[in-house]
## 1
Amino acid sequence: METTTSVNLKTEALKNGAIWGVINIVIFLVSWYAMPSLMSSYLYSGLLAVIGIALAVFFCIDMRKKAGGYWTFGEALWNIFVMFLMSMAIVFIFNILFGKFIDPTYPVKMKEAVMAKTQSTYESLGMDEQTSEAALEKVSESLDKQFSPTFSQAIVGFGISSVLYFIGALIFALIFKKSNPNPFAPVNEEEVSTQ
């Protein structure tokens, strides 16, 4: 007797994206309250990138297994992008709400930390004072938009981030697509739904 299990990959992608977003929020909160000075360092950015790639690989493999071990480029792309978008949306919304309602000092402290780090970088590169001041003014404007965005700035930022995450999803879909070597083999154990 065969058992049929229905796997909805879109639901799995949303679930994995939500888990990934919550993990990012926990990392953010632990970093902010335990070691806020670390958040403006290159080490922190590098560590977040490594954790993000590791989670993306883990969740892509998980979804491919749930799809029966094989999925086309299109199935992989759509579901990976949905997962990336869900994770990004959760973190994006949380960061805005955190800076506006939970800890209003967050945007100010982060801007100060990033400005200090940027200024020390410019000084170590031997940049003259006038050029450094002009560059720091541009960085300050950019940080204001990043940490305290208006509604339209938040929408534009989300759109730009979505495009970048789509490019990432393209790369991951190319890596994790796997064609069934026997395309005529019936799927006996699982019924896979991509909708």
## 2
Amino acid sequence: MIRKHPETGTWMRCQQEWLRLYRRVRSRTRREDADDHLQNALMSYFERPEGSVQHQDAYITRSAVNSSLNAIRRERQGYVQAADDFETLVNVPDPAPSQEDIYESTQKLAHFHEGCEQLPDRTRQIFLMNRVEKMKYSHIAKSLAISESSVEKHIAKALIFLSTWMDH
């Protein structure tokens, strides 16, 4: 039994109680930090009013195991912990595009816009209605009072021209 105010002659008994509780908690949690959780549980026990806990060993053991389970949950939820090896953090790839990739994409988009400006007005209009406004050929044909075949020819013409334009 753990006494809240051990007397001077009971140091050895307290040490034995600690080891016994530590082994119990360690066997149930299988974690290296069992002593930390046991210490937290003991602090919780000592902060309670005298006589409020009937089964001290069970209370302390359960508190330590619960503390360990809470630590496991925090780890799984991605709480930040100190890294053992700084190189691990340095070598984590950034999922964001690099500055070079952003610049290259901006240049390609500008080049594409220049190519669209080179298309004949009607072809550009039909191409943008299809690719930007997501209109179907039949809707484009009706809105411009032309045949679907004409729409298909304008789209094909735009695609061929832009494909060649982008290769240069």
## 3
Amino acid sequence: MKKRYNSIDFLRGFTIINMIIYHLIFDLENIYGFSFPYNFFYYQQYICMSFIFISGLSLNFSRLDFKKIFVLGLSSLAITLGSYFFMRAYAIYFGIIHFFFFVNIIFYIFKNPLKKLNPYFAFFLFLALFLFFRTIYGGSLAFGLINLPAYLYEYNLFFLGLPAKTFTSGDYFPLIPWIFLFLSGFYFFSFVKVQKKEASHNIINIMGRHSLLIYLLHQEVLLLILKILLR
């Protein structure tokens, strides 16, 4: 039996479960007209931040190769085309899988100099950069303390966090600021003491080991179930 970091598989699986719950709520509200007396923005932010942070952390022990990058690229294209033709109002042009595709390419190119950085210093540096640039695609830095000039957004560099006013995406995770959170996750591995053990058969761990496949299929499954139950 292949050995795994079971605690990290569990965290990834737990995040996937919360993502499914959030998308169920999203579908009920935006497709079927349900109304919930809560703002789920922070819940959504917790999920995406956890997913990106854990993915960066996982680079310490997962193999980064062209096959993985190719699968992410193909998945990104499928998500864009599928969302455009079947849910055009929520078409995804640069979502979280697109982000993972490009950030893995960047990491692959710069992995040698990145691995030479002191991990403790780098963790806090990239975490600080993430917080500083967190609001860039809203037109500001440092949580609104610094306003960016409007002309930076005229070129629609949405992949860098500089979208034009006309740009929309049902799921949006530009390289800036999310690459900094991803890298802080990579360096956080130096803070944790985890060991490989025999792979757990816990359902949450199993989901964590197949997170990409679940991400790609869960929305279609949810919509099919809702269509059956609420028709």
## 4
Amino acid sequence: MLKFRYSDANNNSGFIIDLLEVINEKWSNIYWGVGDIEIIPKYKGDYPGFGQNKSIEVAFDFGNKVEREKIAYLTLSQFMEVLEDTQTIRNAVLICFPNDVPFDYNLRPKVEAKDLNKIQHELAQLEIRILDGDLFCILSKESEITLLLEEQMQEFILT
């Protein structure tokens, strides 16, 4: 298990974007399953504006979807759209699947899993657990991605 610590737990969406981009360098034919999430959207002010403008609450709606369905599946571009509207993710489980693995809506991933050193789905390639917005635990079946993450994000490694 690889552990990262990010210093700004109240503003970690940029760090998560960087992390996902490093993973996408290695694997491009993937999708993400997200569960057990506590997401804080970006604050856009008290007033949405004038006229018929409709406020788009991507992060808020996504958090509600995960709360309702217990798991949500999305592509990297969809996930990036959510993260662009996110201030921070306090807790979450992000599971990376190859595109040829079907969605499993019975999966109920937990940040505080029973077996901390095991990926919660047997067909997943990688799992990221975010705890308290600053601790990132990364489990992978492939050592190559772990080495790539260690190399490109070494300043965040927790020893």
